[in-house]
């Protein structure tokens, strides 16, 4: 698969009451098409998050947005721009970080979690030296992470509560 330069094309989801930030790496092609987080139907993120929060899985973008804000959860991605092949985090090169500091200043975010290894690695390298806020790495909800069952993912994500 050919590498292409990708620019993050939609804003973070947060408000002034957000307390927890979940960071992906960069949106997948499907998420960029929908202009919202975790848009690929095989990604288990929304099933995991709703189970952790004790809610029915949201179906529409508006339901997803409302569930996150109701529980003071912010969503964004570590990377604003990078070179990537498809949705392969392992292929990411030339990453430019998003302004996570802005979210921290405009909200009550106290804890940050990465929804996968590449997001955590790039946050630690590119962002944490400025924000001084540590990140906790969670397992990826991508279907490529088949080693993790839905049940194991839900248990791992309970730490966000």
Automatic annotation (TrEMBL):
Keyword field: Glycosidase, Hydrolase
Residue ranges the record marks as coiled coil: none
Classification via SMART domains: UDG, UreE_C
Uracil-DNA glycosylase-like domain span: 11-158
Top EC category: hydrolase
SUPFAM superfamilies the UniProt entry points to: Uracil-DNA glycosylase-like
Keyword Membrane annotated: no
Cell division listed as a keyword: no
Known EC number: 3.2.2.15
Gene Ontology molecular functions: DNA-deoxyinosine glycosylase activity
Protein name: DNA-deoxyinosine glycosylase
Lineage: Bacteria, Bacillati, Bacillota, Clostridia, Eubacteriales
